[in-house]
């Protein structure tokens, strides 16, 4: 049976590396836990690292976090849906917002729950995902400051996730200037300028991070040890915090070229046959992992001799060539994952999750 293993020692070392980096530059940071998909045992490991703030995009995950550590400061990191307002005020100490009508609802619900709900207002800096337009930003803020039981604790932006717009020095300087404008116009301090994410970390070493950027939200680099834009490994971080294992459930030497009349497969793909390979054979292994769990484009065999042939809903076929390593039925194959691969596997209820 396929399973995912979390290496707790390597996770801790990755956390310590990032924590030291951010402390050296007087930056506060939060762990983005959405890749864990609310898995309680894994969330406990993250919280035990000494994390002070956890971000997630699912209210149910924030609820799990609060059940583990009621004192943990939680951040809901996408514009709230109106139907979720009650739960967001209950389980998120802070939410990121872009719609005034939504913040009004958060204000009313916070009054009902006798809480002060904190908000970070996201500004649009070119990525065209969530964010208030720059020309409307000051007027937007003016209205929010009047709402009861709402505390504005920051401004932020999101870059890279949709179109790949990079958080360069110029973009983050713009964010910094808006903080200065707001503080000057309204005579109110804005604690967080949340412009940092995994893809922003290289700016620290390059000396290009504006001083005003004092808050980062980091998930991918913590769990994968890589810089998202180039997928390059950080020198002192681990890329194998997660390890995926799948069992060989069939291993037979078969023809390389399929036979019969061809249509399309379950993904709607039509294959062209390489007639030069007619008559050739190779050892093909089927593993207990499929498209229902993860796409093969997001995982990579640790053994470089192995090659993906294709996948269906519940099985992936791998070409072992001459099977030089003498694999047999029942053996486990190990895979590396990228961020989307980890997200998909962790979201699959069919893959066991263990710790090491």
Automatic annotation (TrEMBL):
Cofactor: pyridoxal 5'-phosphate
GO cellular component, one term: cytosol
Pfam families in the record: Ala_racemase_N
GO MF term list: alanine racemase activity; pyridoxal phosphate binding
Protein origin, superkingdom: Bacteria
Domain Alanine racemase N-terminal: 7-224
Keywords (A to Z) from UniProt: Isomerase, Pyridoxal phosphate
Gene3D superfamilies registered for this protein in UniProt: Alanine racemase
PANTHER family, alphabetized: ALANINE RACEMASE (PTHR30511), LYSINE RACEMASE (PTHR30511:SF3)
Protein name: Alanine racemase
Source organism of this protein record: Prolixibacter denitrificans
